[in-house]
Design brief:
Length: about 230
Amino acid sequence: MRFLIALVVAVALLAVCERPLKRYPGLFYALSAALVALYFFGSASNATGGLWPYFLPLVQRCALAFVLFSIVMFAGALEDSSRLRLRIMAVRRQLSVMACIFAVGHIAFYAASYVPTIAATPTVNLALSLALATALVALMAILLATSLLAVKQRLKPSAWKGVQRLAYPFYLLMYVHLALLLLPSALSGKETALVSLSVYTAVFACYAILRSRRALQRHALARTVASQSRTEAS
C-alpha cells in the first residue's frame, strides 16, 4: 500500500507541480523538510490517528524517497524522444534533492534502531547492511550537494556529469541494502517483507532491462555512424 501511495504522490507532483517545481524549487525543498519535521514530531508524540498511519511509512520506510529516486533513474533509461523523459528531465535535479530530504527520516529512524542492536548482538547480515548504508549516505550526500544549483554552477559540466554518474552505484547499492534487510524476514515467510522485496526486485529488474536496452541501442547507433563515416571517407 505504501508504494502505491508514494507513487500516486510522486505522479501528482510531476503532473501538477512540474512548472512550479522548476521555477520555485526552494519552496518544495522547504515543504519536504517540513514533512520530515512533522514525521519526527509525530513519532516523538506517538501519533496514531487520522492520516498518520498512511503518512508514517512514506518517510520512515523510505517509500517516497525510493519512488522519487526511481523516477529520476528511470528517466535516464527512457528513449530520448519520450515525452515522459523530457518532463522528468526538466525537474530531475529538483526531484533528486527532494528524495534526499525525505530519506533523512528513514536514515535517522533506522540508525537509532539498528546501530544499538548491532553493537549489542552483531550479525554478519546486519553489519554488512550497516556498512552499505554508510556508503549510501556518503554517496547521497555527494549527489545532494552537486544537485544544488549553487554547487552545480561552480563545477565544470564534465566534472558535474562525472560526479552524477555516482547515481548508478548508489541505486544498485540501495537495492542490495534493502535486499539484505528484507531477505531474512521474507525467507521466514513474513508477508510484508516478501511483498516489499518483490516490489523492489521488480522495479530494479525493470530498470536494469531498460538501461541495458538503451545502452545497446546507443552502441548500435555509434557503430552505424562509425561505419557510415568510414564509407564516406573511402
